[in-house]
């Protein structure tokens, strides 16, 4: 009951976050010193063409009308047409967003299952060779530029060992001659839904290197954070009490101490998820990943406002949703979260 | 005697947390350890559990539980024969696990039987500590319980181990006086009905008076006086014990200031040549500074002081 109220409260607040972001996007698109009508009308437009574009885009209406128009069309998913490609933005997002989400979620999952356990063991074996080497490893993972790590991984796993594909999302043999039917846009899910295990395995292999590259930073951070939290928690009185009650070391480590440390680690990983949605441009370029990062950066360079606005909103929704999931997960782990 | 300790000292490098503690505890009784903060009470308690911080060195002429040397067997007895009731119940319970899970974790190790039997046993143990609604408590999280309830849960956990010797490290300090008294009476009745033995660490003479059969007074990591509670309270011999008694509310008429003990106990890194209490003692004499005080023995009462027995 308490949990349900908490989730509803969080949902209510999320709606305000979305409204705020929509407002900021609208304001930003109006104060940038360039004329949308000129951009829309194409290269070397005549005065008539610009005037027509102005009318079509309703730029001659009052700001208030423009804003309510913007909000209502965004609310129903009518993102409009790209100035640059004249394509429906909805269709572009429908193909780019799942690719990015698939990559970001996979990378975030890797950060969770690698970073947190390594942090736990590093704390347990404090000052051992394991602690020192994972410490150095995490610093390297955080400090190494992603393009460099990407090339390193490509060189080792694609070039030298030749066990993983160099780039792309799926092999050409499959995408050209025997494509997977698109249902959700997530290749891993679609291939499973249609029973295409060959395509599933192929997609996984394509996912590993870019996901590893993207996961390096959050993994390193989560590991160090978990380690320092665990070291502090293992000194707490309830851990000493658990020892005095005869509980096994493993049970104390994973059953008693870790649930106290997971909350902050989850928060950090959630933040890095947001980063990997749009900030992964370099990774997407190097691995030729047909994702949102590249789409957005190209839109920004050509001042393609409808695309920027729609992407910003969609990314915000994904991020707010991810945050909600993490908050609910934390409430499950630590019941004190739902109080207040 | 279930516990025999003679000349126990615990060092951390050059620091002497415990210098010379001797006590013996009779099975089925509550034995008090009383002293100011920093006199080595808690460290002594942790030594029984083998839970001293890294780098601790334990030396003793005798340090035994039921005839076994605790320096060797503390790790295997911990949580089976010897357990702990911690000082601050709010901190001693894991904030993110339900009481049911925490109690079940202990029962899983110590009792055979399936989930259902363990659940029944958990209810039984909580009821034994005087909690009125065990089913509800098992579903609760620590932050949903009051301090007194939390402390009862901690006691139930200690009972769940099946240990017969419990270290109670200031079990009432974090509670208010009335609730503390209720918790003590629960402990007292458990000692009587289950034949437990309890080492009661406290800085409160009232606690000693209320529930301990016997007590040791610790000062600067040294046992300065030891005896039956009645002898200790009615006929304190060591000036430090007397000073502790005078510091009790109720020891002076209403409106008058309590007599505190001036100064601080010696630090663990100080060397003590004579009597550790010499600097603060109202009856100090020249011998106190450099000669270790002699041990005086009466039946059921002993103390170490330069003052004559007659005085």
What does this structure look like?
The complex is a heterodimer of chains A (about 350) and B (about 300). In chain A, helix 9 (about 185-195) crosses helix 10 (about 195-235) and helix 12 runs antiparallel to helix 15. Chain A is built from 15 helices and no strands. The relative contact order of chain A is 0.15. Helix content of chain A is about 75%, strand content about 0%. Chain B has about 300 residues and is α/β, with parallel strands linked by helices. Helices cover about 35% and strands about 25% of the residues of chain B. Chain B has helices spanning about 40-50, 70-75, 90, 100-110, 115-130, 135-140, 145-160, 175-195, 205-210, 230-235, 240-245, 285-290, and strands at about 5-10, 15-25, 30-35, 55-60, 60-65, 70, 80-85, 165-170, 195-200, 215-220, 220-230, 295-300, 300-305. The longest helix of chain B is centred in the middle third of the chain and has 18 residues, at about 175-195. Chain B is globular and about 70 Å long.
Write the topology of this structure.
The complex is a heterodimer of chains A (340) and B (311).
Chain A: H1 2-31, H2 36-40, H3 47-56, H4 63-75, H5 89-124, H6 129-143, H7 146-160, H8 172-177, H9 187-193, H10 197-233, H11 237-244, H12 249-278, H13 281-286, H14 292-301, H15 305-333
Helix pairs in contact in A: 1-15, 5-6, 5-10, 5-12, 6-10, 7-10, 9-10, 10-12, 12-15, 14-15
Chain B: E1 3-12, E2 15-25, E3 30-34, H1 41-49, E4 56-59, E5 62-65, E6 68-69, H2 70-77, E7 82-85, H3 89-92, H4 99-110, H5 115-128, H6 134-139, H7 147-160, E8 165-169, H8 177-194, E9 197-202, H9 205-211, E10 214-219, E11 222-228, H10 229-234, H11 239-246, H12 286-290, E12 295-298, E13 301-304
Parallel strand pairs in B: 3-9, 3-10, 7-8, 8-9
Antiparallel strand pairs in B: 1-2, 1-4, 1-5, 5-6, 10-11, 11-13, 12-13
Helix pairs in contact in B: 4-5, 4-7, 5-7, 7-8
